[in-house]
Design a protein that fits this description.
The complex is a heterotrimer.
Chain A: E1 3-5, H1 7-24, E2 31-36, H2 40-53, E3 61-64, E4 97-105, H3 109-119, E5 126-134, E6 146-150, E7 158-162, H4 164-167, E8 171-175
Helix pairs in contact in A: 1-2
Chain B: H1 20-36, E1 51-56, H2 62-73, E2 77-82, H3 94-102, E3 108-113, H4 118-123, E4 129-135, H5 141-155, E5 162-166, H6 173-184, E6 188-192, E7 208-210, H7 213-217, E8 222-225, H8 241-248, H9 252-255, E9 263-265, H10 278-281, H11 288-307
Parallel strand pairs in B: 1-2, 1-3, 3-4, 5-6, 5-8, 6-7, 8-9
Chain C: E1 10-20, E2 25-34, E3 37-42, E4 51-54, E5 60-63, E6 65-70, H1 83-92, E7 95-100, H2 111-124, E8 128-131, E9 133-134, H3 147-153, E10 158-159, H4 168-179, E11 185-187, H5 192-195, E12 200-201, H6 204-209, E13 213-214, H7 216-233, E14 237-239, H8 245-256, E15 261-265, H9 267-271, H10 296-308, E16 313-314, H11 323-326, H12 343-352, H13 359-374, E17 389-399, E18 418-428, E19 431-435
Helix pairs in contact in C: 1-2, 2-3, 4-7, 7-8
Classes of the chains: A alpha/beta, B alpha/beta, C alpha/beta.
């Protein structure tokens, strides 16, 4: 299965998004990036670097584990609980614009969980959503503000995002059958 | 050591049932849970709609409160039943009490019981997950896990450390769970206490047994003091508390032989002036209050991990 | 003694392999039974019109087995066992007679209780029952019972079983007094202060399970006291349910000095150790008995004592308890397990097939010696004696099912064990009371007029 995004394309998308963020938020004052674990976290860190490279300010970055907010937790008794990782938001989110970063936007349920989790941390001015891939099939009224690439898929397909920091390479693939990772 | 991805059992009966990777999993999960306690809103919806019963047949303040707080922070519905308020005093058996409770479909039962093996008895017929919150003189697994979390936090590791456990070893479930956990994780364990209160079989677990506090404490990275029950004088175990403190009480002077960065632990409640001098208990080497904070995180981790295990319909 | 003699029927038990250690018989013989007694023993006895029953090949006819340590629970604890259910359990286990312990409610410390037991046993009409009286009134350890009266009423021994004879002085007096009637004192060896509130053998297993221990010396220290007192008085002391190797050592010492000391061991003490407490979820209350399951060294010592003859008797310490009583935590559950129906398979499998002892030696342990110690009939097959016989199937394989035990209580730790060897049939007073449905061919031992 050919990659729908390679390293180069991912890199250019993240730089474009950094520019769009600066543009939309008129200079990125009072912004903060929060990556959703696992692959949203390195993406958020790269965006922070790109914003600086694009002439913007240094933007604080945190990581969010949404496991404890999932709506499918313990719904299906099919396997172990997801491994819980540490949430690390080393700044107040009150009165900031939060850029929530994830790798893939699909049903919207992960983002719903992330919004619940974020709001437990305070009252941001607004929350904007950044995703590397939007594959469609939303089940909740959620849309992304910044998208790396829209990839039309069927529900039977799966989208595999790999990032250098976790997987050793940057790549987005679409698979026809379910892939267990 | 790599952490497991799940617990093999839907009960936590004792450390004896856990392998090192499961212990790592619980501790790693507890680290993540601990962050929740630093938030303004110290609550997550993970166990929303789940019911946890705290069934305590023995007086307990800190363990019961710690479990309750853990359950509430995970949004579980909790019920507490203590022996004095229950039908136990009317002669109902433990099994009947629990069957009655089970008719209300709790997901997890947290049990504290004065009889060793009580949670094991329940596990033979209960549909709910059982968490052992202390059974007789047998095990107190969440205490050992919170102790391990505290040590790992302060020392960065478990393997290779020297840990001295001092006190009434014979009657202590904290001792048994800690010895099992620490030896599994590669810790050098020394135990120390009066010969009359020394249980059999510790040497076989690779534990060094001594009756000299100085020998136990020498170069120790961790000194864990256990509570001495006052009623031990009745069983002809000890001549007096005064002599006990002289021989086995931890003072600043005796702590000098430990490693320079030694930490002092105590599962509580403490008998100041019996097993530990207040100067040490409240001193800079004491991590006793960390233990309390870590207790909530460890219990959240255990409840979270068990709640995901298969539940028999 | 109950009289279960059948006076009407005559029949011949044909061509069975007979093992009778006291007469030295080990070979194929016919046994003619008439009026409930052995009428003739020989080869090719004439059947002269009476019915005859062929013993299937591989079966062994022995003197009726006698269990000299059984708790029948009646009077007072009929929810656990009754004299009827207990003696039926005995028969189902191959026993033709049992001696029953006095720790009933009321305690068997008076002739009226003894007579009650014998009346109930006669009504049940299964295994013979030999009551054992209490040493002290109420087994309270202060005042001797009327042993003469009890002896006349039918008691064959005295004990305060469940507890030791409380003081050295009381034991001395009991040994002296009982010796007038040539009756043994059966002792439950246990130093109460060392036992404390222990519930399991004091060792590494109990320690790690957090169970309070009962040290081995709690037993042996009392055995040593009693052996010294038997030496002093010349009385006969019989040590019940021995479990510790230190006790066996004391017995050997006593015997070598000529002290009239004998002892018994229960099957669980030569087949199990405290390690079993860790199996499964752990804390199986059907592994809780007093004395407790001890260590492998003790188990091996018991096996050796059986092999070398230091141990006189195998008895079951059959101690039925209701399932509700055993469904408690380990420390609160009562001590004891049922044993009548599991004894023979355990003995044949673990002792005979394991090469420890011969079948003939097993018959001594389960029949000859109990009869001799209690001075009761049986223990040998002789013309004129009641026809109490056990037919063993040493090579038959049986699987023990606690739920299928005929005892009123099912508290056995041997549930699910598959063992080689069992009782095929039990004959009391010439009547075939029981044939084992699990053993092929056993049913053919029922004479055609019985059902």
């Amino acid at each position: 299965m050919p990659a729908v995004m390679d390293a180069d394309r991912i890199g250019r998308s993240l730089m474009r998004i950094a520019h769009e963020i600066l543009e939309h938020n008129r200079g990125a004052e009072n912004l903060a990036l929060v990556g959703i674990r696992a692959r949203g976290v390195p993406l958020a860190e790269r965006l922070a670097a790109n914003i600086v490279a694009a002439g913007g300010p240094s933007v604080p970055t945190g990581s969010l584990d949404i496991t404890l907010y999932r709506d499918d937790l313990m719904r299906y008794q099919v396997g172990p609980q997801p491994i819980l990782r540490r949430t690390d938001i080393p700044f107040s989110i009150d009165d900031r614009t939060i850029l929530l970063v994830d790798d893939v936007l699909y049903t919207g349920r992960t983002i719903r969980s992330a919004l619940d989790a974020l709001i437990d941390f305070g009252r941001p001015t607004s929350i904007q959503l950044v995703v590397l891939v939007d594959r469609g099939h939303r089940e909740l009224p959620i849309r992304a503000d910044y998208v790396g690439r829209n990839v039309p898929t069927s529900r039977q397909q799966s989208v595999q995002v790999r990032v250098l920091e976790i997987d050793g390479r940057d790549e987005v693939e679409v698979h026809d059958a379910e892939v267990t990772s | 050591m790599t952490a497991a991805v799940r617990l093999r059992s839907r009960h936590l009966l004792g450390i004896s049932d856990l392998d090192p990777s499961e212990i790592e999993l619980i501790l790693d999960t507890a680290v993540a849970m601990k962050e929740i306690g630093t938030r303004t809103i110290k609550k997550v919806p993970a166990l929303r709609g789940r019911t946890v019963v705290n069934l305590f047949f023995e007086a307990s303040t800190r363990t019961r409160l710690s479990f309750e707080l853990a359950e509430k922070r995970l949004s579980a519905d909790t019920m507490g039943i203590t022996a004095a308020a229950s039908s136990v005093i009317k002669g109902e058996t433990l099994a009947d009490t629990v069957r009655t409770l089970e008719a209300m479909s709790p997901d997890i039962i947290v049990l504290r019981h004065p009889s060793s093996g009580a949670p094991h008895l329940l596990s033979t017929f209960c549909h709910s997950g059982i968490v052992n919150a202390g059974d007789g003189m047998h095990e107190h697994p969440t205490q050992a896990l919170l102790d391990a979390l505290t040590i790992r936090e302060r020392k960065g590791r478990l393997a290779g450390l020297k840990v001295a456990i001092v006190g009434d070893l014979m009657h202590s479930r904290v001792l048994r769970s800690n010895v099992l956990l620490l030896t599994k994780m590669g810790v050098e364990v020394r135990v120390c206490g009066p010969r009359t209160l020394m249980p059999l079989g510790l040497s076989a677990l690779g534990v060094h047994v001594t009756y000299s506090l100085d020998e136990a404490v020498k170069d120790a990275d961790v000194v864990m003091m256990l509570r001495l029950q006052h009623e031990r004088m009745n069983g002809m175990f000890l001549p007096s508390l005064r002599e006990y403190f002289t021989l086995f009480g931890l003072t600043r002077e005796r702590l000098k032989h430990a490693a320079p960065d030694v930490i002092v632990m105590h599962p509580g409640p403490m008998n100041r002036g019996v097993e530990i001098d207040s100067v040490v208990a409240d001193g800079p080497r004491s991590v006793i209050l960390d233990q309390v904070a870590n207790g909530v995180a460890v219990r959240m981790a255990v409840l979270y991990l068990l709640a995901g295990e298969d539940v028999t319909p | 003694m109950t009289d279960v003699t059948d006076v009407t029927n005559a029949w011949v038990l044909k061509n069975g392999r007979v093992i009778d250690p006291r007469s030295g018989r080990d070979g194929h013989f016919d046994l003619r039974i008439e009026g409930g007694r052995i009428a003739a023993i020989g080869k090719d006895l004439p059947t002269d019109g009476v019915r005859s029953v062929e013993v299937p090949a591989g079966f062994v006819v022995t003197p009726g087995l006698i269990d000299m340590h059984v708790h029948l629970r009646e009077p007072g604890q009929e929810h656990k066992e009754t004299i009827a259910t207990g003696t039926w359990s005995a028969v189902a286990g191959g026993f033709t007679a049992v001696a029953c312990m006095p720790n009933t409610d009321p305690v068997n410390d008076s002739a009226s209780v003894t007579q009650f037991i014998l009346k109930r046993a006669a009504e049940a009409n299964f295994a013979r029952v030999y009551p054992i009286g209490a040493v002290s009134i109420g087994s309270q350890g202060s005042q001797l019972t009327e042993m003469g009266d009890l002896r006349t009423a039918g008691c064959v021994a005295f004990t305060d079983d469940g507890h030791p004879v409380a003081t050295a002085l009381l034991m001395r007096r009991a040994l002296e007094y009982a010796s007038m009637f040539d009756v043994p004192i059966i002792e439950h060896c246990e130093d109460p202060s060392l036992k404390g509130d222990g519930v399991a053998h004091e060792g590494a297993v109990a320690s790690m399970l957090g169970l309070r221990g009962i040290p081995s010396v709690a037993e042996s220290i009392m055995a040593e006291r009693d052996i010294s007192l038997a030496e002093l008085t010349g009385g006969r002391v019989h040590l019940a349910h021995m479990s510790a190797r230190q006790t066996l050592r004391a017995v050997r010492d006593g015997k070598s000095r000529g002290v009239k000391v004998t002892c018994e061991v229960a099957p669980h003490h030569f087949t199990l150790t405290d390690e079993a407490l860790k199996e499964g979820a752990g804390y199986n209350t059907n592994l809780k008995m007093n004395p407790p399951l001890r260590e492998e060294a003790d188990r091996l010592a018991m096996v050796e004592g059986l092999r070398d003859g230091s141990i006189d008797v195998i008895s079951t310490d059959h101690a039925p308890h209701h399932a509700d009583e055993k469904a408690l935590t380990f420390d609160h559950a009562p001590f004891g397990i049922v044993g009548l129906e599991t004894c023979v398979p355990l003995c044949i499998d673990r002792l005979v097939h394991a090469g420890v002892i011969s079948l003939s030696r097993l018959v001594e342990l389960l029949s000859c010696r109990p009869a001799e110690l209690l001075r009761i009939p049986g223990g040998t097959i002789t013309v004129g004696a009641p026809a109490d016989l056990t037919v063993l199937a040493p090579d038959a394989s049986v699987t023990i099912s606690a739920g299928a035990l005929v005892s009123k209580s099912k508290n056995s730790p041997f549930d699910g064990w598959t063992l080689k060897g069992a009782a095929a049939a039990t004959i009391v007073g010439g009547r075939v009371l029981y044939t084992n449905p699990a053993i092929p061919g056993a049913a053919s031992l029922t004479p055609s007029w019985e059902n």
